[in-house]
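Key idea: predict the complex, not the pieces.
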Amino acid sequence: MTHTLHRTGKIEDLREDFPMLTHVSRGFNDVGAGERLKQMAEIARKYTDLNFGDCKVANQFMMPAEEIMERHTVGWQVVFKDKTSLIACMRELKEKNIGISVVVSGLFDEVFDCCQKAGIDPPLVEFALGIHGNQEKISPPEILDFVTMCGHGLVSGHLVKKMVEEIEKKKITIEKAAIELAKPCLCGVFNPHRAAKLLRKMVRP
Amino acid sequence: MRIDQEKCVGCERCVSYCPVGAIHVRKDGGKTKKRSWIDEDECVECGVCLRANVCKPEAIYLPELGWPRIVRRAFSDPMVEHKETGVPGRGTEEMKTNEVTGRFKRGSWGMAVEVGRPGVGARLKDLETIAMALAEKGILFEPKNPVMFLFEDPKTGKLKPELREEKVLSAIIEFVVKPHQLKDVFEVLRKASERVETVFSVDLISFPDEKEFALGVAREMGFPVYPNGKVNLGLGRVLNR
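Result:
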């Protein structure tokens, strides 16, 4: 599943958006993987508290992170907003050498720079080659930037519009609206920090 | 998903949570009371409305789903692992664990076409349109991908007929492309782009030092290359004894 690929947005916004995922490999390192995933999650969560989840369980806005960690299935997800934290996390994951696969998404230039600083030589990359087909059905860019933060397509463009309306009516704060948008994305790869910044741009004064 | 019309109070809180806009509001039989209802033909059974936990009278519920409707849920709700497909989720481990599995080899590229993404959803007949066109060019699909259980004949990409009109949030075709197949594949996808009712996203998996050739062909064929994507850090290893 390519759920952290195809994120749209302006370059300056994508500079604050780095999802990280771990994934167990069935038949190769799945025996006793729960404890290893938990160790790795504890490392990652020292460096970011923006979001955390397991798509077969829940994200941190639906269930306490500690409970998610006790119920890990095949992997977990977090998201970073800055390279400093990401590099520190990558360094520690490499040093601890726990043995479960890790994938980081983001601007290639930025992610490769992080890899170099963390002493990591990535063996494989995945490129997004665009959206094709009936273009009339695609949400406008300002909505798509939210929708594509959940690769499973669980964040509704209608909910984005509703949150903007409710912020304008002062029924909800920008920060709470960003978290409301993060809730449907079970994996925990939705970036509430970026969402809040995008909402701020959309709200009329 | 369904909404119990006796319990619904017409507050409309659930409406905006539906990723495919399948929840609507109507006046109940000419009366003044409003009720929300779900267009079952459009609903992809993703469960977002239920998990949103915004329905105070608990009117939203998941009915028992039989074949072929259960396919909607399998390809829309990431929490589901069901017996008909035998594989959880919409895809596979693909490049995420390649340093452990060695699934992708040098000298070829992994590709995936995801119909319905981003955020639109798709009738499975669009998946069939693309799969059949790729199969005609000799493309073999990844056997572990759950879409393989939907095909009447995986070699031709023909779907089981009862599935053609089923709607899902997305479904992925995964395959490996050799250098001489790249242009054909991009040409197939370019033509399919004009035939399908929905949208589809395309991705390409490569060893870092082998990317330029494939990306060059992609650009030449009119496919944009995003500046962002996925990077496997290579930290996995075989641990099972």
